[in-house]
Structures are given as C-alpha cells and as structure tokens.
C-alpha cells in the first residue's frame, strides 16, 4: 500500500486486535513495564483495564499520569523503556504497549472523555517559557494543583518540536492540537508569537508571576562550519518545520543527502521517502552498533529504502559534493546530491534569559536555578531528552515549585 | 477519575459496593480477607466453616483448568472442600476481621451435617461478629453425602436446615444454591419457607474438565484416579445467569434478593448479573487466576456504566433485563434479517463461507478468484452465523424482510445489539 506523508504510518488497533494484544500481557506482579516508564504512565494498570474491558478506566490511568498520553503513545521509544522491561520477552516478543496506549487514547478522544480537573485556585501564578512537551506537562500539573498558568511561545502554534519537528505520518498535528486544547480547556493561557527578551523581558515575567519556568528546549539547529553558507544545505529543523507546516506540499529534488544518525535524521530520511524522493542517502557518524536513533525509527527508515552508510564523518564539501572519511579505517566516500540536509543535533538558545548552559544543559541537577524564582525543565534540565522524559521533568518541576511556593 | 456511589443494601446490610469474595479458597484466613478488603472488596464470604466433627482432608493436586485455543481458564475445576482450619481458628479470624474492618461486610458461610450442627454453627458465627450468614447447601465435592449439593437438591432437607439456622441466629441469611438441578425454584422456595432471607446462586457445576489420554484418567490425577467436582469461571456464566433469571421470574419470587455468582471477572459480567436481579456479586475463579486487584476495574467500569446510564443508585439497575427475557414461544418469528457484507472490510479468509455451508444453510457463495462471499437471499434464513464468525467485522445486520405470508412493519423491528452490529 502506498503511504503518504500526511497519513499516519501505523494504522492502529481495532477493538478485536487490541484485545488480542492485551490478552498476551502476563499481568505481572510488581510489573516491570510500569517501573520502566520514565513518566510513570503505569502501562501494567492500563493494560489490565483493557484486558478486563474497562477502556474508560484505562484512559483515566494514562491521562492522569501523562498529559501527553496520546503523543507518547506514538513517539515514545518504548523499546528502550517499558517494552524492554516486559516479562513477555521471556516467551516471545514484548507487548506492544505503545500501540495499546494509542488505542486507549484514541478511544478517550472518541468517547469525548474529560478526565483532568483543575484544582481550586490557590491565587498563585506561574509563567512558562516554551510550549513543548515539558512546558505543557508542567502547565497541566500546576493547573491541577490550583495555579494559574501563562505559557509564552515564540512560534505561532504551541507544541514546540511536537508541532514543528516530528513528521505528520508519525505524529499527526490533529493529535497534538487535541492534547494542547485539553490543556487550554483546563485553564492555561498561551501567548503566541512572544519571545522572552524581545516582546517581554524575563524581569517583567518575574514581576507578574510567582515563578517562571524556562522550558525552551534545544530548538536551534546545530551547524557544522564547513556547511555554513552552502547553498544546497538546509538544517533538519528548518526542513521538518517547512514540510509539516505545509502538510507535505513542498518541492524536493530527486537526490537528497542526509547527514546524521539520530531520530531527527531518521525523521528527515523517512519524510523524504514519503515525499517520493527516489534517492535518499543518509551518512551517519556512528556505526550501527552505536546508533542513536531508536530501533523502531531505524527499521522504518531502512524499510522505506533509504541508503544508510554508517561510520563516516564529513571531511570537506565542494559545492554539492561532500567527502566523508571513515572514523576508524582508512577510507573515504564522496556523495553528490541535489540537496543536503544536516541533522547533526540541536542547541538551546538561552539569550536574554540570564541562564548559563553547558552542552545545552544547566550545570546543576534539579530544577531550581540560582534565582529562586526561576526554574528550568525539559531538554535544558539535566537528563534524557525524549518526550517521555520531558513529561516527567514537567511533573517534577511543577512539584518542585509547589514545594517552594507552598501552594496548598 | 470517576467516583460514583456503588453502595447497595442487601438483606438489610449496607455494602459499599456489590463486590464480595465468594466462599472458597480466596477467603480462607484473616490475611487473605484483609488484603481483599484493602484492595476494595466490600464483603467477604469467609470460606465455609463446618462442624468440628467433620474432618477436612484434601487431595493434592486439586485443580484443573479448561483452555480454548490460547485462552487458559475458560473454566476451572476445583476439588477443595470447606475451610481446613479448626473451628476455633476460623472463629478467631472472623472476630479479628470484624474488629479491624467494622465498615466492611463479613459473611460467614456454614455447613452442617444435621440440624444441631446448623444451629450451633449459626450461633457461634453470630457470636464471632458476622454480619450475615450464607448456608452452603451446594458444594459438589464433599466427602460426606450429608453435606453439599446432595442436600441442596432436596427441598425438604433445605427447609429443615434453614429453620435450624434461624433457630441459632437472628442474622440475615442467604441459602447458596446448586446448579446441579433442573429447576432451582422449589429449592429456593423451600429455603425461604424455612426462613432464608435471600438466595446466593450459583455454586459450581459438577464436571470432568479433561482426561489425561495416555493414562486414561480424569484431571487432576490423584494417585492414578480422579473424581467429579465443581466447575466454575467464565464458562459457567451463562448457566448462572439463566438460573438467576428463572428465579426472579418464578411466581412469588419476583423481588427475591439474590447474590449473584458464576464466572464474574469484568464490570460487564457484573452488570449482567445485576440486570438480571442480583444485588450483590460474589467472585472466586477470576481472583484465583488474577488476584484481588481485579476489583479495581470492576468497580471503576461499573461507575462509568452508571454514568453512561444516568443512574445514581446501583439498585436502580437490579433486574432491568428480566422483562425482556420471555418464553421462546412468545418471540417474534415473523421476520428475518440478512447479512450485509462489506467487501472493502473483507480480508478474504472464507470463514463465513465455511460456517454457512457446514453449520447453517449454504446461503453464501464463494468467488474463488476475488475471494469474496455473496449472500443468496433465497437460501439465507438470517441466522447471522456468518456475522458471528467474521474476524474483521465485515458482516453486519442488513436488510430486514418479513417472512412470506407474514405482515408487519420491518422498520419497527429492533434487531441491533452490542454483539451483532
């Protein structure tokens, strides 16, 4: 079947097939899957609810633990967390926990369930800079605790990388919008097109709010010096945002070179194939044994016919021809392409935020900065950089603020 | 998370929700009942307490299970009898449970061999603090023919023993019925005449679940032999529902208070028992398979069901489905409904064709090239077997037609259900 960029690649379970998958679950004691979920989404409990045909109860478990449950269901690298821990691996293959979670959150949406409740107002206000996953989860937890929440987003739409980065076939915008609307309905106010340091200052936010959370993420593409000002080169961040904003209606030449081996690079390569680019070559610094991209993304990319060359680092560029050298053995390759997309990482831009970052992270553990009113979360906080970790950090920064401000 | 009042009154006792452990291995001591209470069960029917002179002596192993394809525990066979602890130990556990959980419901299941036993057991469990008594007239695997289902099929004995229990205790009392009988009505009526306040139904069904084919012995094998014993679990649910429905539609028993038992493991099962007339529910087999935790989803799911049905009190649901169960001769036999086959959804497995040919009326034709079925309405009787076997929901209820010579408004016929779309 021909797949398109604007169609979700994975078609999802039906009622019959989800019951068959849930029936495979061993309903373990002290379930390892639940212990392995960074966001404590509690898969053991929601799968048990599915198993006993309590779909609404399953939805409550997911939603109350994870404000972005429908998003995590689609993008979480479950093979590194819950599914890696699954005891069913001792028999055959792990339970498709992400797939079951997606079925349940789709059910929740169709049943028009309204699970989250705003807490009684405690009169305190928190400003959140950035509306990516961590900012959204922090907003939700704070609203549940009775805080008023203002979110400041520099783009025209909320969601950060969820909206502008992860491709439509993997995470439809409708899903992201639905999750964000849920948080808006809970009482969050989002101020769009507002960059702190330009339209508003951090000092002003600290005056108008009881606490400020910096959830700015690593939103800027990293550039390698040799590619600067190269006319054929576009960053992955710019490319993915351009394709997603235009819902796949963009023109791309027939031969594209991708450089990078993380999930973003896989997203770029797969997007190119879904846009019917015949020749997509991805050259990766890491060898397959040390690959950064999730196995699921790597396999999907390979299945689509992307040529992946591992272990090579760019050495020089001449117009549209890049020369790579192998990192370990003596060898080099040259790739000529009509377009070059650079997916070699992202950096945080903390200008005007009085924040010192080292390797795009704050140089301390936890969430409170040296300024007692200012907190950090998401990718700039120390720790993993996945959406599920962003969710957990969002919950934790909200708890930290609640402990500091004593909102109860 | 949803929170609705699941409480219900039964025989004058208030239950915080309808879910109780049934008298069985799952409620055999203080620690088990404590854990069940802590995990959300409203009541416990403590494992049947017998007279001191009856010595419980169990076999090993003592269980078997019936599987179908990849599904284990479709049904469960159990040879265990009544509580193996001493009378003094059991009574001490009852006392401690009531002291530690005064708001929970503690039901003492008892079983005697004669009137004096029944009276004495009723007296001592009342003294120990039980809120209610259940008479076990129905265990099918007792080693004494003066006990269990041999008693429960005899109305005269049942009446006599119920009266004996009432002599020993003023507590509300329910008599637990055996399904190993054609009509439960006479036994239930005899129990009520003897003083029972309500009925618990059903106990287990006499069974042989499997045979070891090499050894040519039933399972479980006890030193080369086996016995008939009680069968429970999901497979007996239809039998339990039938008995409960028939009790509630027996003249004079329309308001009979019932504690429903038989294969309950989901909130949907629970709702079915309630809709046919059960006020409280008792569970064992699914607890043995999955643990006390299953009560969480039963409670939560039942709350959501009440919300969907706009019902504030669980008691408003009791018995609602009885009115639409009528004698077979009273059903509307004037119409038939054809299958509607969606060729886009069809994956070409041909299961509908096989079932229609081999199990119905040869009304489906099979195109070997396109691998798609077509319905010949001349032969189709509207049985919908094809609809039931389709693995992808490609067959739904289609056109409703009156049978030749019958009159009626086909648009007024109610055909749809949660099973057949």
Automatic annotation (TrEMBL), chain A:
Gene3D superfamilies: Alpha-helical ferredoxin, FAD/NAD(P)-binding domain. SUPFAM superfamilies: alpha-helical ferredoxin (SSF46548), Nucleotide-binding domain (SSF51971). Residues 7-111 form the Dihydroprymidine dehydrogenase domain. It catalyses: 5,6-dihydrouracil + NAD(+) = uracil + NADH + H(+); 5,6-dihydrothymine + NAD(+) = thymine + NADH + H(+). Keywords: Oxidoreductase. Its EC number is 1.3.1.1. It holds the Pfam family Fer4_20. Involved in pyrimidine base degradation. Catalyzes physiologically the reduction of uracil to 5,6-dihydrouracil (DHU) by using NADH as a specific cosubstrate. It also catalyzes the reverse reaction and the reduction of thymine to 5,6-dihydrothymine (DHT). Heterotetramer of 2 PreA and 2 PreT subunits. This is dihydrouracil dehydrogenase (NAD(+)). It comes from Agrilactobacillus yilanensis. The lineage of its organism: Bacteria, Bacillati, Bacillota, Bacilli, Lactobacillales.
From TrEMBL, chain B:
Its EC number is 1.3.1.1. Keywords: Iron, Iron-sulfur, Metal-binding, Oxidoreductase. GO terms for molecular function: dihydropyrimidine dehydrogenase (NAD+) activity. Residues 337-367, 371-400 form the 4Fe-4S ferredoxin-type domain. It is an enzyme of class 1 (oxidoreductase). It catalyses: 5,6-dihydrothymine + NAD(+) = thymine + NADH + H(+); 5,6-dihydrouracil + NAD(+) = uracil + NADH + H(+). CDD domains: DHPD_FMN. PROSITE patterns: 4FE4S_FER_1, 4FE4S_FER_2. InterPro entries: 4Fe4S_Fe-S-bd (IPR017896), 4Fe4S_Fe_S_CS (IPR017900), Aldolase_TIM (IPR013785), Dihydroorotate_DH_cat (IPR005720). It holds the Pfam family DHO_dh. Heterotetramer of 2 PreA and 2 PreT subunits. Belongs to the dihydropyrimidine dehydrogenase family. Involved in pyrimidine base degradation. Catalyzes physiologically the reduction of uracil to 5,6-dihydrouracil (DHU) by using NADH as a specific cosubstrate. It also catalyzes the reverse reaction and the reduction of thymine to 5,6-dihydrothymine (DHT). This is dihydrouracil dehydrogenase (NAD(+)). It comes from Agrilactobacillus yilanensis. The gene is preA.
């Amino acid at each position: 079947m021909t797949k398109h960029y604007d169609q979700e690649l994975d078609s999802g379970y039906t009622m019959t097939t989800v019951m068959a998958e849930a029936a495979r679950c061993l309903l373990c004691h002290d379930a390892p899957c639940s212990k392995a979920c960074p966001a404590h989404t509690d898969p053991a409990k929601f799968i048990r609810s599915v198993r006993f045909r309590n779909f609404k109860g399953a939805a409550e478990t997911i939603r109350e633990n994870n404000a972005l449950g429908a998003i995590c269901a689609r993008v979480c690298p479950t093979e590194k967390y819950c599914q890696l821990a699954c005891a069913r691996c001792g028999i055959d293959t792990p339970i498709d926990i992400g797939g079951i979670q997606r079925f349940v959150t789709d059910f929740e949406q169709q049943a028009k369930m309204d699970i989250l409740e705003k807490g009684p107002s405690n009169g305190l206000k928190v400003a959140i800079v950035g509306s990516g996953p961590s900012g959204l989860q922090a907003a939700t937890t704070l609203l549940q605790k009775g805080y008023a929440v203002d979110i400041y987003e520099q783009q025209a739409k909320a969601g950060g990388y969820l909206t502008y980065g992860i491709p439509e076939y993997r995470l439809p915008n409708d899903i992201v919008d639905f999750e964000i609307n849920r948080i808006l309905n809970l009482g969050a106010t989002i101020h769009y097109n507002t960059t702190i340091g330009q339209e508003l200052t951090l000092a002003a936010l600290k005056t108008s709010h009881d606490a400020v959370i910096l959830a700015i993420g690593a939103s800027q593409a990293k550039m390698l010096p040799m590619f600067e000002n190269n006319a054929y080169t576009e960053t992955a961040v710019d490319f993915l945002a351009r394709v997603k904003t235009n819902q796949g209606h963009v023109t791309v030449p027939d031969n594209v070179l991708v450089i990078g081996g993380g999930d973003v690079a896989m997203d770029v390569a797969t997007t190119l194939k879904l846009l019917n680019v015949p020749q997509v070559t991805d050259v990766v610094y890491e060898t397959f044994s040390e690959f950064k991209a999730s196995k699921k993304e790597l396999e999907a990319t390979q299945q689509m016919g992307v040529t992946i060359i591992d272990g090579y680092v760019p050495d020089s560029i001449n117009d549209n021809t890049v020369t790579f050298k192998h990192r370990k053995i003596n060898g080099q390759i040259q790739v000529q392409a009509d377009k070059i997309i650079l997916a070699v990482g992202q950096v945080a831009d903390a200008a005007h935020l009085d924040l010192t970052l080292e390797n795009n992270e704050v140089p301390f553990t936890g969430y409170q900065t040296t300024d007692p009113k200012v907190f950090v979360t998401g990718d700039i906080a120390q720790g993993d950089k996945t959406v599920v970790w962003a969710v957990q950090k969002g919950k934790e920064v909200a708890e930290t603020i609640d402990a500091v401000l004593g909102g109860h | 998370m949803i929170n609705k009042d699941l409480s219900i009154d039964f025989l004058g006792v208030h239950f915080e929700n309808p879910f109780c452990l049934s008298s069985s291995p799952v409620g055999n001591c203080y620690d088990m009942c404590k854990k069940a209470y802590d995990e959300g069960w409203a009541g416990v029917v403590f494992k049947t307490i017998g007279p001191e002179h009856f010595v419980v002596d169990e076999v090993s192993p003592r269980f078997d299970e019936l599987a179908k394809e990849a599904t284990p525990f479709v049904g469960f066979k159990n040879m265990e009898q009544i509580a193996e602890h001493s009378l003094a130990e059991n009574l001490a556990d009852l006392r401690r449970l009531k002291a530690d959980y005064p708001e929970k419901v503690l039901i003492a299941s008892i079983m005697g061999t004669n009137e004096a036993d029944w009276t004495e057991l009723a007296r001592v469990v009342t003294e120990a603090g039980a809120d209610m008594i259940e008479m076990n007239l129905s265990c099918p695997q007792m080693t004494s023919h003066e006990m269990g289902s041999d008693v429960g099929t005899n109305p005269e004995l049942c009446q006599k023993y119920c009266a004996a229990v009432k002599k020993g205790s003023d507590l509300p009392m329910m008599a637990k019925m055996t399904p190993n009988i054609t009509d439960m009505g006479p036994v239930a009526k005899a129990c009520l005449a003897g003083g029972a306040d309500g009925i618990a139904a059903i106990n287990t069904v006499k069974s042989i679940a499997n045979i070891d084919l090499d050894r040519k012995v039933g399972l479980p094998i006890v030193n080369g032999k086996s016995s008939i014993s009680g069968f429970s679990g999901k497979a007996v649910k239809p039998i339990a529902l039938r008995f409960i429905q028939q009790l509630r539609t027996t003249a004079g028993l329309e308001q009979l208070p019932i504690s429903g038992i038989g294969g309950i493991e989901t909130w949907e099962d629970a709702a079915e028992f309630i809709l046919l007339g059960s006020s409280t529910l008792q569970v064992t087999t699914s607890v043995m398979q999955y643990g006390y935790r299953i009560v969480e989803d039963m409670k939560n799911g039942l709350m959501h069901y009440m919300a969907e049905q706009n019902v504030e009190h669980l008691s408003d649901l009791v018995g609602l489905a009885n009115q639409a169960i009528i004698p077979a001769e009273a059903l509307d036999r004037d119409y038939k409904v054809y299958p509607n086959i969606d060729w886009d959804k069809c994956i070409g497995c041909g299961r509908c064709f096989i079932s229609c040919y081999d199990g119905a009326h040869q009304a489906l034709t099979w195109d070997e090239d396109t691998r798609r079925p077509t319905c010949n309405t001349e032969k189709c009787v509207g049985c919908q077997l094809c609809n039931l076997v389709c693995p992808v929901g490609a067959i739904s209820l289609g056109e409703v037609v009156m049978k030749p010579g019958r009159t009626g408004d086909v648009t007024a016929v109610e055909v749809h259900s949660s099973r057949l779309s």
